[in-house]
Amino acid sequence: MKKKRMSYAEAVEYLYSLQKYGIKFGLSKTSNLLKALGNPHRELKTIHIAGTNGKGSVAAMLESILMRSGLKVALYTSPHLVRFTERFRVNGGEIEPAQVATLVAEIREVIHPAQPPTFFEVTTAMALTWFARERPDICIMEVGMGGRLDATNVIRPMVTVITNISLEHQVFLGPRLIDIAREKAGIIKRGVDLVTAATQHQVLGLFKATCEAKKASFWRVGKDIRYRKHGSGFNYYGFRRIERDLQLGLFGRHQFRNAAVALAVIELLEKKGFSLSSDHIREGLRRPDWPGRMQVVSREPLIILDGAHNPDAMRTLADSMREAFPWRHLILVLGIMGDKDIRKIMREIVPLAGHVIFTRPEYYRAATAETLMQEAERLRKRGEIVTPIAEALKKARRMAGNKDVILVTGSLFTVGEAMACLNPERYRPDNLR
């Protein structure tokens, strides 16, 4: 029987329709899809990255460094900011819409009607299938949620990374920090090095014990790998490498720690036969492509976008804002998902603002602007409701003086909509029916 052809719009709409199956943990459906497609993931050399915050930044830095060494590099991340195709990159280029349509049509043919997969299971199978056909030298795979039962955990990587651990997705991962750490530790594979920047004693104890049980080497930032910030740059002290006066293309002091994680991975890859120079490292750290993370999108007025979406990330953003961007008034444009810890997120950033504009991205999980404003009343902070995001941005720009800063944050969905409004040519969203 002839396979049905699909347009890109039909393919993406079909994928979004799978969201009705929610989030279901387990590897069997992803494994079955990949088996029906010839197990393409078994051909790939991969790096696997989990963590509460920073995993995307580490992935982007690794992509940038490895590409500058002349390697063909694949990258799988989530969620996307503006376009579905952002999730899949090879050498910095997004997958073509026609390729998405072809892959979805192929995968749809092998799905068992009685066992429908989730959105993320299908997108992960798409990524691994496309990457195998592109024949990259190495693939960087970001975990979607947790790790142990995440769809990406079908791979056997060359190096495993767990950036850090804090409370997140507790309904799915467990109520305690150690529960969440146990889920992340599920990506540790027998004999595969683990690099982490986690700091909590109980978390490190769990990681160490898991690595010992699986005969996997355990490497820690702050112990086995060190870095020292100075001025606008930093020095890196690794297993063998010492790199001085490195500069970062991503704002925020937390990015120095993320860079140390990335460089530790680079050193472990060198032990496995990859060849990289100090120039590759230096240039790669200066030019990662990772929008929506302390991204300056306008100078007059100064507008900064950051997708901080949990309390730890928002605390880090607040600290980085104080350090990097002086202001007379901070105008905060805030939109948060309803399933997040809204109260704790707002406590970290709202007190810094001179004025808050509560808004809501056009996404079903988003909290209402009214909910955010009610929560802000507990903090005794002035504000107003302006929706949609396009109107919230217009209001913020009208208010901003020469020495004021506009910060758009609270969710990657909020940031993605803002990017599409502020620069529609570069950040053009999908044109779906």
Task: Give the beta-strand count.
Answer: 17
**Radius of gyration from the alpha-carbon trace, in angstroms:** 21 Å
CATH superfamily of the largest domain: Mur-like, catalytic domain
Shape annotation? globular
Give unreliable regions as ranges.
Answer: none
Major beta sheet summary: 8 strands, mixed
Helical/strand content category? alpha/beta
By DSSP (H or I, 4+ residues per run), the number of helices equals 15
Strand order of the largest sheet: 4-3-2-5-1-6-7-8
Give the amount of beta strand, in percent. 15-25%
Instruction: Give the CATH architecture of the largest domain.
Output: 3-Layer(aba) Sandwich
Name the CATH class of the largest domain. Alpha Beta
Number of domains: 2
Beginning-to-end CA distance, first to last residue:
28 Å
CATH topology of the largest domain: UDP-N-acetylmuramoyl-L-alanine:D-glutamate ligase
Mean pLDDT rating:
93
Q: What is the helical fraction, as a range of percent?
A: 25-40%
Question: Oligomeric status of the shown chains?
Answer: single chain
